[in-house]
Input
Amino acid sequence: MTSQAIPLHLPGDAPHEKIGVYVCHCGTNIAATVDVAEVRDWAGQRLEDSGVVVSRDYKFMCSSLGQELIEKDIKDLGLTRVVVAACSPHLHEGTFRGACKRAGLNPYLCELVSIREQVSWVHTDKHAATDKAKAVVSGGVERVVQNTPLEPLHVPIHPATLVVGGGIAGIQAALEIANAGFPVYLVEREPSIGGHMAQFDKTFPTLDCAACILTPRMVEAGANPNITLLTWSEVVDVKGYVGNFVVTVNKKARHVNEALCTGCGICQEKCPKKVVDEVYEAGLGYRKAVYTPFPQAVPKYPVIDVASCTFFQKGTCRACEKLCPTNAIDFSQKDELLTVEVGNIILATGYDLFDARRIPQYGYGRLANVFTSLEFERLTNAAGPTNGAIVLRDGQTTPKTVGIIHCVGSRDRNYNNYCSAICCMQSVKFAHLVKERTGAQVYNFYIDMRTTAKAYDEFYQRVLEEGTLFVRGRVAEVTDAARQPGEEGQLIIQVEDTLAGRQRRIPVDMVILSAALEPRRDAKATAQRFGLSCSADGWMIEKHPKLDPVATMTEGIFAAGCVTGPKDIPNTVAQGAAAAARVLGMIQRREIELEPIKASVNQEQCSGCRICNNLCPFNAILFHEDRMVSEINPALCQGCGTCVAACPAGAISGTGFSNEQILSQIDGLLMLNVARQSAAVTA
Amino acid sequence: MSTNGSKPKFAMYWASSCGGCEIAVLNIGEKILDVDANFDVVFWPVAMDAKYKDVEALEDGAITLCLFNGGIRTAENEHLAHLLRRKSKLLVSFGSCATEGCVPGLANLSRPQDILDTAFGTLTTDNPQAVRPIYDYPAPEGPLRIPVFQAAVRTLDQVVPVDYYMPGCPPESHQIAAVVELVIKALNGQAELPPRGATIGAGASTCCDECPRERNVKTIKQFVRIQDLEQIDPKLCLLEQGLPCNGPATRSGCGALCPKVSAQCIGCYGPAEGVVDYGARLITAFASVIDAKDPAEIERILDTLPDPTGQFYRFNLAKSLLRAGRPAWSQQ
Amino acid sequence: MSEQFEPVIIGFTCNWCSYRAADLAGTARMKYPANVRLIRLMCSGRLDPTFVMKALAGGADAVLITGCHPGECHYIEQNYKALRRYLLLRRTLGGLGIEPARVKLVWASAAEGAKLTHEITSFVEEIRSLGPLHWPQWDGAETSAPAQAPAAAD
Output
């Protein structure tokens, strides 16, 4: 055997690309600072070895004539790559990719490099600008050689939608989508939908009764055949991606068979166990161990509160079971995990009220007659624990003077920097209701009055005219320690009146704290579950605070209402409808096109080290325990490239911004290609 | 070329390296007899007497397989690299030194002058007469010339084109045996050689691929030196325990020898297939597991990794993108 | 024309913020020196230290890395990952004798054209005062040996 049998040559060189370079004048926008003809000639001559076969300039490359120039060259010269030196890719990348596509060239084989925003407009020295333009073109040429043809990803959109949160935002969103004819799963963790709005008495500034306007919506949502109500339920897991989410919902055991229950209410009536209702009645009233939170609850089926139920705690009683006319009580019911498939998700999980105990100097929880705003809502509500009578904690005394403190936990760097948006109007509403129902003297303590929406300031003026007193100043303290005659037995509000320029002590019978709206206590966990992020304050971050306020950074997940920050009812409803409109837009498209800028793992090369596993905020990286390799879900991948840059084995590659593309672009920008060519010529 | 009956020629050379590669070859055990049976060993300074002029006398391309170990530090190394390239059909960059510079390559962080000063003049050097290398020495028998000590260590492929790379410090003996077997089979027409430029005798993935340790999503608050760990969890990924283990970035092939015995991988098999810069892979790997967002906190954690350059480039400096520290090439 | 040193700087930008800041600087006709050549990435998290080393080894005198402000990353938090890499990269380069000042990280939002302009201008000045990097161009195989060590004879 001779050694000639041994193959000793490298596999053939990669096929040479045929590149066209097109330099735009942009009228004089580029041409005034960059010598366009020189760049054109230079690229044609000096970048020949890199594959440039034609180099042209044109007054306006983006014009139809300019685009035709490119299309003609692709067809006539058989170009395999195109570099356009013009404006920012954010402006015309689509234009030139389109031209390439029309001429039969994969659009991703076209590279637009900016010699306007990044060269002619920011530099003055023509020589330096022309040199830089050459470097930029050279970088583009080297990069484009490494470009690979790509196809956009098409993902079908499942027509069903998950709405999380059954407050007014979620109800609105669910109704809009359901009325358009598409299925909705409305998940609510309390026994009934309705949310905070169901607890309110009147709504500002029109003073319509909250129940009167909300209840019909709740009933509609409960009756709509396209809406599947999942109350007393929580989302526990979200998998998948835009168009194709798989959501697991924990339907907590109601211990009431919904198929049999008629909602007659006998069980509630007969249940011997009374408990303080901390949720709906804000701790002011009672409910039973088996209960619906309020009479208009939707759905009408009650739940058994296992922690309070005598049967569950002691094994006796069974009163409800015995007395139920339809045998609907089922103590053996278990939590149930439901899996639903949806194309889009709307998050409308609302807010929690600031815990006023955190400001000890305001005395909430210590001084009996200090109330929170939510307590006061229940107090004034005709269906509330006092049947709408505004009375002190003793349940009978009508206050003669009431102080309402604004910005409790808002606009306060000790708690929350933001403005809670609704407290000014809510406090004005309270002032009106107190005045109307008790004739008491009302003081409002405010920092600034913010009455920005339609008819808000008019309402404020009206309440001013009714004789409510407004004191500008942040309250220092609420105390029952009398110092002066006339203060005994009262709550004294210590405040600096910044308009009068003096300290004041104002004795009142009742204090109402307009507490801040805060992110849900479990907002972080919720964000994580849905792959979203929270701001430093804890509110969910919208895709763009102005131009895309109901979308999130995660495709297919939208947000409405207070989940992204404090809002009043009109804004909340508008957001619910807006989110629904966005979802309907997605559903109508049936499928969406995703940019093919994606990362992928070479399974052969992946060592399963798991370094990349904590890098993806979109949970696109999946670790297969069985094969010990990581894999990227292309539909979840947003194309940032962080994992590509992080893989220690070099096993992850990214389309559109590959290592080869960027390293070659660096070579080009540094003119190493030209240097090599010169070296070869001299050799 | 070869006359009927004569065996293909084999050569092995030891340039700037420690000699461990030579031992690793001998360590292949009985397979060494196959080498002898199938090859005519024409040049192997460590094993047999041979003169450079004998090699020079060979026809170009006469040597079928040459295992070249060691980096290029001296003019002699460079001369032999060119000579053996010319005479060999298959020139294998054998071992870490030839392939990526290895530990001798770390000298690329220092001025050559300082290296000589250290070698000949520090307190711990037994050199009472302060002998220093004299490049041209007029000995009575005739002038003696010591090969020039060059400014930096270069890898073999930075000096001459190379057909195959075999990483490792040293390459594992079972891998050497497999490669020898493959070449013999190829010579007999029973197997195909991989494409030129390929890395042979190693995997394409990294050490973690062969490491039996359990691994999780990684986050660490500090790096620790192995001697500072009270106890090493015998089952858990070393990096997760804070040990700066180079395994995630280091080419597989050794069978994860070190991590298996609770010593962190130090990276002797070099980068995985297709990686441009080994150290860069480790920078991003280690940075990725640091659990901090605040710059001061990140810096505090990085303080627990006292010599990142040495950690990341212990074996790979000469082959890295930057190749040498500034002192090695600048006059200052 | 004076013999002023004109550094070559490679800049990495994030598609969502700093690249748009550069666009904005252009649209607003702000001026900065022509020494910086920008590369667009989707995110500063895409920045592989290899790119920085490649640029420095290839003749760049400095590298500018830009990204969204902390907490404002388009991809939620990838800029923190860029930050950690950058800090470790700087230490590693320091060990090779490269002044840490030659690699700079700047946060710039899409609205901060003026800030980017200012940062580029001052960075070019900083590099000018540091002088050229002059990293040797070690080219592929068959290069001749770098400068010979001076004979260390007596």
In short: The domain at 599-655 of chain A is CATH 3.30.70.20 (Alpha-Beta Plaits).
